[in-house]
Amino acid sequence: MNKLVVSSNSINFNGESIKQIYGGFGSGQISILAKQVALLHGYEVREINQLIENSLDWFEEGIDFIDLKVNEYKGESVVISNDHGLVPYFYTQEGFNRSEHIYLLSQQGYALLCKLMKGDLSKQVYKQVIRKYFSLEEKKTSGPKYIERAFSNLRNIPYGYFGVIDETTITLYKEAELAGYIIPDKSIKDIEMRIDVSLGRFWHKYYLEQGFPESEIKTYTHVFKNGIKVKANCYLDKYLGDFRKFVVEIWLSEEGPRYFYERCPEILKYLPKMFPTCPSYSTLLIETKKYTEKLEVKQRKLIKRV
Predict the structure, then answer these.
(1) By CB count within 10 A, which of 97, 196, 209, 291 is most buried?
(2) Could you tell me if 153 and 78 lie in one domain?
(3) What angle do CA 193, 195, 198 make, to 5 degrees?
(4) Under a CB-based contact definition with an 8 Å cutoff, are residues 271 and 288 in contact?
């Protein structure tokens, strides 16, 4: 199954903020909606759709384009539920349901489409989109900062111990990605996301409350990307199960919704999909709903101001 993931990172074009989409034509492959193309090139969406539909001899379905309202091609399927994030970032649920066709283009399909457009402006926009949006080389050479920080600090953690940063990467970041959301490097306040710092503080308190021996805790030198070095706790591997249980059943349900609401509220609708079988799932739903409603109130106030 080809799952679409909307990146949390935005690419700016002439004042327009465009989110990258991955998937549809293969895991990790960057793709672009006809709706995004219309916005970038100054067309109506129906005009872009007509260009595609009137030139089907140019395009090969499944390689150059996919119609997301027809969810099967060549024996494969594309997820068209809310999981891939197109709703609400690009469509309202009503708009998504009402659309007869929603075309997704590969880089090759986008290049073919641009050949059908007229004028020098389309050529200029095309060059910018290829360089900025379809930045495959940049995607290969640089990973998310939290992964780089986790990997760079692994060698500093003593053998037989685990650090909060590496386990946060496995337990939270990867589960979020599998649910269809990529946790951004920076919060909405343009500050680097350091979930492990919050988790580490709450986990240390929980560790002591459980009566686990403080004498078994060691420290290691944790190095941030800006060169700052701090002493961080690490814990015996035998407590790894307790840590993972704490993250999923306690921190994520009780602290997670508030934490993410203040830093990357887009993840709120994905939290219940990450751990649907955890014992504290009902609490997670309640807390997530509470902060989702707060977010909606905030967004409505912003809209009224505009």
Answers:
(1) 196
(2) no
(3) 125
(4) yes
The count of other CB atoms within 10 Å of the CB of residue 43 is: 17
Q: Are residues 79 and 130 in the same domain?
A: yes
Whether 84 has a pLDDT exceeding 90, the answer reads no
- Locate tokens 């920080």: which residue? 149
Domain count along the chain: 2
* 187, 131: one domain: no
Cα–Cα distance for residue pair 138/127, rounded to 1 Å:
16
Pairing of strands 103-105, 30-33: antiparallel
End-to-end CA distance of the chain: 40
On whether the CB atoms of residues 158 and 145 are closer than 8 A, the answer is no
Cis ω on the peptide bond leading into residue 88 (within 30° of 0)? yes
Give me the domain span that covers residue 109.
5-141
C-alpha distances (whole Å) from 294 to each of 63, 88, 285 are 42, 17, 14
Same domain, 84 and 97: yes
Could you tell me if 214 and 178 lie in one domain?
yes
In the three-class reduction of DSSP (H, G, I as helix; E, B as strand; rest coil), residue 61 is classed as: strand
Distance CA(244)–CA(170), nearest Å, equals 10
Query: Helices (H) and strands (E) in the chain — how many of each?
Result: 15, 10
The string of pLDDT tens digits covering residues 254-265 is: 888 888 888 888
Tell whether 204 and 104 lie within a shared domain. no
166-185: pLDDT as tens digits: 888 777 887 887 777 888 88
DSSP one-letter string for 225-276: TTS-EEEEEEEEGGGHHHHHHHIIIIIIIIIHHHHHHHH-GGGGGTHHHH-T
Scan for tokens 């037989």, then name that residue. 160
